[in-house]
Amino acid sequence: MSYIDESLGMEAVEWSGRAMYALGQLEGSLRHLSSAARRIFAGKLLKACLMIALRQEGHAFTHTRFHAWFAGLATLSDAAPRNGRPPRAVCLAILTELGHSPWEPLSGLALSLREAFLAPQDFASPEAHQEAFQVVREAGALTARLVSQLSLGNPSPVVVLRRLQKEMKESLQFAPRKPEPDLKRPLDLNAECGLSPPLWALDLFVGQWLGSSGGWLPALPCPGLVRARPDGWDARPSIPEATNLLEAISTLLDLLAEASKQAQFIEPRPPQFRSSSRAPDLFALIAGFGPLRSSQLETMLSASRLGIRSMTSALEEAHLIDRRRIAGSHLFEARSHLERSSSVAVISEAAFSPAALDEFEASLAALDRLLPDEKD
Question: pTM for this one?
Fold first, then answer.
């Protein structure tokens, strides 16, 4: 772990110490996560990256609306922001970049979700989609320059954040900028509003320069960490960077704690599930990323519709998930309040032999061929 730079000033040193302590907690916790907790945490982290990016772009939506949009059942918001990048393009750029993450739970999930991304088309120009990918490329290039500078020393993460602010100030893409004038409204010289730069793209690469400065391994994104400097930051050197780091790392610790708690219900594998059952994998997906529809789960788990039906039924009987009907389709979501119970009934998935289950699924397939198709 990196040292605390005492040249920052006493107050900054105090905040830096708190941030470094939280960073150490995160690093230690990541090393001891169970397999299920890692998968759930990866889902929560990835969703945070997407939602923060969309909100930075000016899109307004609720948690439920986001998942309905991601599943192709609704628009993301009722009125798209005039200057915001298309939401589908932003998410595709993020999922593509995180698909290259050195942390396998995150990269595998990002690629899987990219294939299951059913959000409606933005009807934006090809240039708008290319711009979102260009933003990510520029963030990566800025990070590469910063990492090359760090190879000459071992500064603390707070000092690195300060250097990042200087790089941002010199960047056309990430420096704060003024909005385009609205010719239909009178000019207000006292207005202090501006368009937010796409700092979400820099958040994706945070782990690279934190790793270079002695931070956590593996290199993870840190949604919400990179922010524009507040007015008057020169009067309080490095304090905004230290407080931002502490707040962002504390948020990741909260997500990690939630993931560890939810993982207890599937690891070790509950006796209700057969050793070959993939229902725990399905639970990890929706406990981490959030509500998904069956067609998305089929893609992500490479399972048939009947297989997903069997898994979701088993998890519902175990009181681990619920379903919510939106626009004629069901979204499956983890229960918000899970409790262990020894009185949970043994699930039918474990009550029948594999041969009996195969025969049952074959009969369901025959019925499906006779019945008209319906939405999932």
Answer: 0.83
